[in-house]
Amino acid sequence: MIPRRRHLERVTEQLGRFPVVALLGPRQVGKTTLARQLAADWQGPARHFDLEDPDDQKRLADPSFVLRPLSGLVVLDEIQRRPDLFPLLRVLADRAGTPARFLLLGSASPELMRHASESLAGRIVFHEMDGFGLDELPSDRLDLRWLRGGFPRAYLADSPQESSEWREAFIRTYLERDLPQLGINLPALTLRRFWTMLAHYHGQTWNGSELARALGVSDKTVSRYVDILEGTFMAWRLRPWHTNLGKREIKAPKVYVSDTGILHRLLGIESADNLLAHPKCGASWEGFALHEILRRTGTSHDQAFYWGVHTGAELDLLVLRDGRRFGFEIKLTRSPGITPSMRSALDALALDHLYVVCSGAGEPGPLSERITALPLGSIWKTRT
């Protein structure tokens, strides 16, 4: 088992400050394992309810009778299955002395769990957990993490075939079981086709009309499809940044499949050789690097942007921190250079610094004033 120390420490700290903590992320990413580890270390009683377990469902037939007397740590796993519990949790969270802390595990984003944000406003804090990060793995496993993705069972599989089979089973279970349990009733084959098409658009600007025509549905329908994938942590959008300088800037978001292992399975990529020869290799690396940069800088998707103009100048990632602007350009090379596009972004966006994130695990090195080459394999060893 690979310890998830960063997540464990963060959730423990949040439980010390809030009566309710929601640990959110896709299924099979390790939320339950983390919760059991946290419960084992908890100073006091701890109780775990799996809301998919028929026995626990029966125990919570009268939730107030069962939950009200409990103290210590109470874990409610797959909370999205019981939105009716949120009003009760608000009452229990407001009790004097806070006798119990509640850890909610869910595989839907706060937007899909509106009851939590509405009923528990001011009482709940959210923490998102995703796949293995480079800070959790040996430095020589970067390429394996890129190929297989971050889901523990896919990454730790004994063989490439076992990893691929697990990812295929995950996709089918997500489409055929997980989405219907969230009340999303769409034909599995239709959404699988859309998800595969989205994989071919990975790293490109969003063009809903083109996808709608290919699927024979409306623009509104494909927008709903991508909302569903994003709301269940299977895809994400990177918003454009506007400088208001009169340039013809790109105003559509970019779209990415969240996990590179799932992306590669959707694209039919089975090996490292297949990946390096595939037309989406560069885009896959870009999405992988962007996700790790956001994780390293503590930046949410809502606080991250890309920039581009129709004349060709662009920047892969813009991060705003403490009133400063940092740019990141992603290059699948070990020897990056400076391009006119980088200089244009540096000036047009008034960047405090520009990092050219490249492959490898060497030491960062200056390329010029305010521009540094930063190997992705060393990003967690570098102060950024």
Keywords:
384 residues, alpha/beta, Arc Repressor Mutant, subunit A, 2 domains, 16 helices, 14 strands
Walk me through what this model shows.
The chain has helices at 5-15, 31-41, 54-59, 63-67, 86-93, 114-119, 142-148, 152-155, 160-181, 188-200, 208-215, 219-231, 260-267, 272-277, 281-297, 340-348; strands at residues 20-24, 46-50, 72-77, 100-106, 124-128, 204-205, 235-240, 254-257, 304-308, 314-321, 324-330, 353-358, 365-368, 371-375. With 384 residues, it is α/β, with parallel strands linked by helices. 40% of the residues lie in helices and 20% in strands. Helix 7 packs across helix 13 (260-267), helix 9 packs across helix 10 and helix 10 packs across helix 13. It has 16 helices and 14 strands. The chain folds into 2 domains: 5-128, Rossmann fold, CATH 3.40.50; 134-381, Arc Repressor Mutant, subunit A, CATH 1.10.10.10. The strands form 2 sheets. Strands 6-8-7-9-10-11-12-14-13 form a 9-stranded mixed beta sheet, with helices on both faces.
Short description:
This protein is of the alpha/beta class and 384 residues long. It has helices at residues 5-15, 31-41, 54-59, 63-67, 86-93, 114-119, 142-148, 152-155, 160-181, 188-200, 208-215, 219-231, 260-267, 272-277, 281-297, 340-348, and strands at 20-24, 46-50, 72-77, 100-106, 124-128, 204-205, 235-240, 254-257, 304-308, 314-321, 324-330, 353-358, 365-368, 371-375.
